[in-house]
Amino acid sequence: MTSITLDQARTIVASALAHGRAQAMQPLAVLVLDAGGHAVAFEREDGASNLRFQVADGKAYGALGLGIGSRALFNRAQEQPYFVEAVNGAFGGRLIPVPGGVLVRDATGALIGAVGVSGDNSDNDEAAAIAGIEATGFVADPG
Fold first, then answer.
1. Does pTM top 0.85 for this prediction?
2. Is residue 136 part of a domain?
3. C-alpha angle 122-126-129 in degrees, rounded to nearest 5
4. What is the pLDDT of residue 1?
């Protein structure tokens, strides 16, 4: 199984932040998790608020834990709020079911991690995550 290296994670972070700046987004925070849910790289731009790590983590960790992007989790929360609430309890309150958590797959489709972005609106956060992932040659799976 492929794993995300530190250099690849740094490329994801730098590319996601560059995308955000090019689109005049609010200051972003970008977190890259490996397939086990461990942080590989994180950066928070100047001006991003103090809880951006936790929000980016909740988006990425929830996506990784359920195997679907946080956009799909958002949709599921609309359809099955009790399920998502129960899962959030099982995750220790760590789940943030809004867009911005994107799964990372290798060329064979294997799940190798997730990226969480927080700082702008959820659609823009997701777009920045996708840009970062695609900059490495990995496949972004927003769910």
1. yes
2. yes
3. 140
4. 55
* Cα 129 to Cα 43: distance, rounded to the nearest angstrom: 13
Give the model confidence (pLDDT) of 29-45 as tens digits: 999 999 999 999 999 99
CATH code, domain with 33: 3.30.450.150
Query: Residue 116: is its pLDDT beyond 70?
Result: yes
Which tokens in the block code for residue 34? 């490996």
> Encoding tokens for residue 94?
């760590």
- Is 39 part of a structural domain of the chain? yes
In this structure, are residues 31 and 56 in contact, taking their beta carbons and an 8 Å threshold? Answer: yes
Contacts for 51 with CB less than 8 Å, ≥ 6 apart: none
How many H-runs (helices) and E-runs (strands) does the chain carry?
A: 5, 5
Q: What percent of the chain has pLDDT over 90?
A: 97
